[in-house]
Write a structure and sequence with these properties.
Number of helices: 2
Helix content: 10-25%
Oligomer: single chain
Number of domains: 2
Shape: globular
CATH architecture of the largest domain: Sandwich
Order of helices and strands: HEEEEEEEEEEEH
Largest sheet: 6 strands, antiparallel
Structural class: alpha+beta
Length: about 230
């Protein structure tokens, strides 16, 4: 009977351990050449010009060639803008939800510039009512807004815990702001991931696991002693 109780405690601990580890809610890396569930307009499309790595990325660009060196442009002869709308994603009620993604933006500002005033990229979060929250930007500054630096690979980590238990939509927006100086490679977005959970189990879980293992070891030791 004692062994059964200890095995139950051990199983319970392993269950808690598993729940404490991070799980993936959403993942899109465009490696199948498709932006699943996205609504794309203007120059947004899945491109094989991928400065962020892999073989494909979501890009605001035209006239580009395949490869990891940024090229192409967004020069249409007029002010150009557009938004790529991702699918709606249901976030669970969880203690920690994190969005990670890579962003590369190349306009008429010099490398490392932030904030920029032309050729701007903004990442928005929309709820089901249409209300928006600015999550990251090349041009806007403020609390909770992740900076995006010009002509650099920006690996962003954004806390979405505030939106736990709701449905959200991510929107990727580019605006040149004018019709001149648009002969640059534009924007790339890649490896969008939303995860939940913490990777470190609670101390109580570790204590329970240790107690179970020690108990089982004690039972085996006594059995060997009696034998």
């Amino acid at each position: 009977m004692r062994k059964i109780v200890l095995l139950f405690c051990l199983a319970l601990c392993v269950g808690i351990w598993g729940q404490a580890h991070a799980g993936t809610i959403y993942m899109e890396d465009f490696e199948d050449g498709v932006a699943d569930g996205f609504t794309l307009n203007s120059l947004w499309h899945v491109t094989q010009n991928y400065p962020l790595g892999g073989s494909y990325a979501l890009g605001f660009v035209q006239g580009e060639t395949a490869g990891s060196t940024p090229n192409g442009n967004f020069d249409t002869g007029a002010t150009v803008f557009g938004t790529a709308y991702g699918p709606f994603i249901s976030l669970p009620s969880a203690p920690a939800i994190t969005l990670t993604l890579g962003v590369y933006n190349n306009g008429e500002h010099s490398a490392g510039t932030y904030p920029t005033y032309w050729d701007q990229f903004n990442l928005y979060l929309y709820d089901v009512t249409g209300a928006s929250t600015l999550l990251a930007s090349t041009s806007q500054q403020g609390v909770g807004i992740a900076p995006i630096y010009e002509e650099m690979i920006n690996n962003l980590t954004i806390n979405l815990t505030l939106f736990a238990g709701t449905d959200i939509q991510l929107a990727y927006s580019f605006n040149s702001g004018d019709s001149i100086g648009n002969g640059y490679p534009g924007t790339r977005v890649d490896t969008i991931s939303i995860t939940t959970g913490t990777v470190v189990p609670e101390p109580a879980s570790l204590l329970l696991l240790g107690s179970g293992l020690l108990g089982l070891a004690g039972i085996n030791f006594r059995k060997k002693g009696r034998g």
